[in-house]
Amino acid sequence: MTRAMVLSDPPLLDHYGALSCHSTQCDEPQSRLIMEECQLPLIDLSGLSSRDELVRQACAAAIYRASSEWGFFQVVNHGINPQLVGKMRSEQVKLFQTPFEKKAACGLLNNSYRWGSPRATCPKQFSWSEAFHVPLTKVSDEACYGEFTSLREVMTEFAAAMSKLARLLAGILTENLGHGKEVFDNICDQSTCFLRLNHYPACPISAEISGLVPHTDSDFLTILCQDQVGGLQLMKDSKWVTVKPNQDALIVNIGDLFQAWSNDVYKSVEHKVVTNAKMERYSMAYFLCPSYDSSIGSFTEPSIYRKFTFREYRDQVQEDVRKTGYKVGLPRFLLKGT
């Protein structure tokens, strides 16, 4: 074991090693197959502002189709300035280069620093990554940044741009279900929408470790801005496929709440991040969530899921993870007989 591995920052190796010493049935090895590389549906959002009604309709239809067939798609000409993305990436790298002890103890970004998988009971449940998971209400809070003063201005602008894009896409998807775009203005709350900064350090010890374990997102939709290292995989036709990075595109994926609300018209698809032995990876994700007391009910009858609030859903997910190490998600809310 090399000195660099022992001194990993954050101390992922120590945590993973402790889990490996207590092997259970969930630790059965899974050989990493060479995954098929896929090109996600690529949608040019400039079509939404076209003067040609047919072009606008075709763009919206492409969003509906990708959301129901893939649960994932890419967007270009999305309105977020590439220079802003570059500045945000630069600030993100500086943030994560801060020594672990400082990141973990100094209360940065609303004390939102997380690393590894605290509730993991075996290596299969462990994520080789670190992140800041920041509610939008805290993004502009000067007290959250400490010495990282240049991060605040960039992050505030970036969060606002991602929020605007998320609401645009959610509105389009909602209109397809027969609702008005204003629905999200009424139920989405800055206190429950998040911006998450992710860092996946190089992991030279095992190709079997996940950068982020398989999961679905517990929101309406997620917008992801990733670098060119790659590593995102999603479940398509009952097999894992690797998403080819596109430096000009943002990735959008449907969350559990939109699947339930659409009565399974839109699909919340399981996805994960694999590790890289030599290269670190960075990404930034925006999560569009409703207020905790918002009721999530299917837009049409007969409904597949019983009605539930976002708070109820989050509490159930957290309870399942606490008890089993895994998220169960929407199957918990299926009506009997569906």
Which secondary structure elements does this structure contain, and how are they paired or packed?
Layout lengths: L2 H4 L5 H9 L15 E3 L3 E3 L8 H17 L2 E5 L5 H15 L3 H6 L2 H4 L1 E3 L14 E6 H4 L9 H28 L6 H5 L6 E7 L9 E6 L5 E6 L5 E5 L2 E5 L6 E5 L1 H6 L9 E4 L6 E8 L6 E2 L11 E2 H15 L14
Parallel strand pairs: 1-10, 2-3
Antiparallel strand pairs: 3-11, 4-5, 5-6, 6-13, 7-12, 8-11, 8-13, 9-10, 9-12, 14-15
Structural description of this entry:
- The chain contains eleven helices and 15 strands.
- With 338 residues, it is α+β, with helices and mostly antiparallel strands.
- The protein has a single domain, classed as Jelly Rolls.
- Helix 3 packs across helix 8 and helix 4 packs across helix 8.
- The radius of gyration is 20 Å and the shape is globular.
- It starts with a helix and ends in a 14-residue tail after the last helix.
- The N terminus is likely disordered.
- It comes from Durio zibethinus.
- Write out the strand line-up for the largest beta sheet, numbering strands in chain order: 2-3-11-8-13-6-5-4
Number of helices: 11
CATH top level is: Mainly Beta
DSSP helix fraction: 25-40%
What is the domain tally? 1
The total count of strands amounts to: 15
From the 3D structure, determine the CATH topology.
Jelly Rolls
What's the story with the biggest beta sheet? 8 strands, mixed
Unreliable parts? 1-6, 27-33
Name given to the CATH architecture: Sandwich
> Which outline best applies?
globular
DSSP strand (E) fraction? 15-25%
Mean pLDDT across residues: 90
Radius of gyration: 20 Å
- Topology order in helix (H) and strand (E) letters: HHEEHEHHHEEHHHEEEEEEHEEEEH
Q: Whole-Å distance between the termini?
A: 52 Å
CATH superfamily: B-lactam Antibiotic, Isopenicillin N Synthase, Chain
Structural class: alpha+beta
